[in-house]
C-alpha cells in the first residue's frame, strides 16, 4: 500500500517472526475460494515486524502515530456495517512525528486468547487478523494480514451410541444405530440399519451430512442448511430382518467443529439425515444431531512454549468441556490433525 503527502510515499508490510516455520492451512474465503493462511491456536503468542518502506529516502514523512492491532471479529452479512469484536489488542509503535528513512518496528502479543475457530459461512464470517496503521491527517495507511485459528478438543468423557426406532405404523419399522454421538473431523461413522417391518417398496436409502448455520437473534434469525455429503447405503428393496452396515469416513468432507452460540451471534450444528425413497418417489427421513470436534493427535517436540502454557491453562477445566467439546482447547495442543 502507498500514500502520498508532501511528495512522499511509503509501503507498509506485516511479517510474522516465525513465518518460515509456522504451518499454513487452507481456509475458504467469502468468495468460496481456498487460500492458505498461517495457523494459530488459542494461547499462542503472535509476534512479528511492521516494515515501513519510504519510496523517496531523505524526504520527510509526517505521521500522527503508528500502531499494530490484533483483532478477532464476527461479521454478519445482513448487518455488514457492524463488526462485532471479541478480541481487540493494540500496541503503539511510534508517537506522532516524522521519518526520513525506512523503519522496522517489532511487536509481540503474548499468549493471546483466541476462543473461537475461524469460520466462513453462508451468512457469517469469524476472522482473526493483524492490522498495522500509519495515522495521517488526510488518509491513514492500513495493512491487514489474516490468520486462521483452530480450536482443539480433548476426547469426550461421555460418548454414548445413538440408537433409535422409527417408522410408519403398519408400513415400515426400522432400527438404526450409530456407534458414537461425538466424532472428530477425521473420524469414521460406524453403524447399522435393521429392518423390523417392511410393507412398502423401498428402492433407495442414503445418509446425508447436513450443516445447519444459524445466525442472528430474535426476529432476525436466519437458518441455512447445506448438504455436505450424500452417502448411499442401499440400492434395492430390503426384506424384514435385513441389516445394512454403515461406514462413513468424515476425512474427505469439508467440516468444521460444532459451534454453539458463538459470542451470542451464530451457531453451526451437524446432523445425520437418514433418507429412504420408495418406488413412488416418496421420501422418508429421520435426522439425528451429532457433535463434531477437532482432534490434536500428536504433540510435537517443537511445540512452542506458549502453546504448552495454553494447554496447561485449560487443563484444569477439561473435565467440564464435555457439553461444549468442539469450542474448548485441548489438553494436548497438538499440531497434526
From TrEMBL:
This is VPS26, retromer complex component B. It comes from the Eukaryota. Coiled coil: none annotated. It holds the Pfam family Vps26. One of its GO terms (biological process) is intracellular protein transport. Residues 309-337 are annotated as: Disordered. Keywords: Protein transport, Transport. It comes from Pavo cristatus (Indian peafowl). Belongs to the VPS26 family. Residues 314-337 have a biased composition (Polar residues).
Amino acid at each position: 500500500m502507498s500514500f502520498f503527502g508532501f511528495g512522499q510515499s511509503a509501503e507498509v508490510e506485516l511479517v510474522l517472526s516465525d513465518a518460515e516455520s509456522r504451518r499454513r492451512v487452507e481456509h475458504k474465503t467469502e468468495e468460496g475460494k481456498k487460500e492458505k493462511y498461517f495457523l494459530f491456536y488459542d494461547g499462542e503468542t503472535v509476534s512479528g515486524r511492521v516494515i515501513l518502506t519510504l519510496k523517496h529516502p531523505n524526504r520527510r514523512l509526517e505521521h500522527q502515530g503508528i500502531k499494530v492491532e490484533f483483532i478477532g471479529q464476527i461479521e454478519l452479512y445482513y448487518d455488514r456495517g457492524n463488526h462485532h469484536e471479541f478480541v481487540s489488542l493494540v500496541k503503539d509503535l511510534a508517537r506522532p512525528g516524522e521519518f526520513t528513512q525506512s523503519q522496522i518496528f517489532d511487536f509481540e502479543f503474548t499468549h493471546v486468547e483466541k476462543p473461537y475457530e475461524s469460520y466462513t459461512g453462508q451468512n457469517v464470517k469469524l476472522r482473526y487478523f493483524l492490522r498495522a496503521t500509519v495515522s495521517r491527517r488526510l488518509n491513514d495507511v492500513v495493512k491487514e494480514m489474516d490468520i486462521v485459528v483452530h480450536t482443539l478438543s480433548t476426547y469426550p468423557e461421555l460418548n454414548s451410541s445413538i440408537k433409535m426406532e422409527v417408522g410408519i405404523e403398519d408400513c415400515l419399522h426400522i432400527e438404526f444405530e450409530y456407534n458414537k454421538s461425538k466424532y472428530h473431523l477425521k473420524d469414521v461413522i460406524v453403524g447399522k440399519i435393521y429392518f423390523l417391518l417392511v410393507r412398502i417398496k423401498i428402492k433407495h436409502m442414503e445418509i446425508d451430512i447436513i450443516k445447519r448455520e444459524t445466525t442472528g437473534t430474535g426476529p432476525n434469525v436466519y437458518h441455512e442448511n447445506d448438504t455436505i455429503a450424500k452417502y448411499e447405503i442401499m440400492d434395492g428393496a430390503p426384506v424384514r430382518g435385513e441389516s445394512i452396515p454403515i461406514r462413513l469416513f468424515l476425512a474427505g468432507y469439508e467440516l468444521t467443529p460444532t459451534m454453539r452460540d458463538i459470542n451470542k451471534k451464530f451457531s453451526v450444528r451437524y446432523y445425520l439425515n437418514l433418507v429412504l425413497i420408495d418406488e413412488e418417489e416418496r421420501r422418508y427421513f429421520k435426522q439425528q444431531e451429532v457433535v463434531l470436534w477437532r482432534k490434536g493427535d500428536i504433540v510435537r517436540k517443537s511445540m512452542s512454549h506458549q502453546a504448552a502454557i495454553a494447554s496447561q491453562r485449560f487443563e484444569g477445566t477439561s473435565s467440564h468441556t464435555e457439553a461444549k467439546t468442539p469450542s474448548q482447547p485441548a489438553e494436548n495442543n497438538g499440531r497434526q490433525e
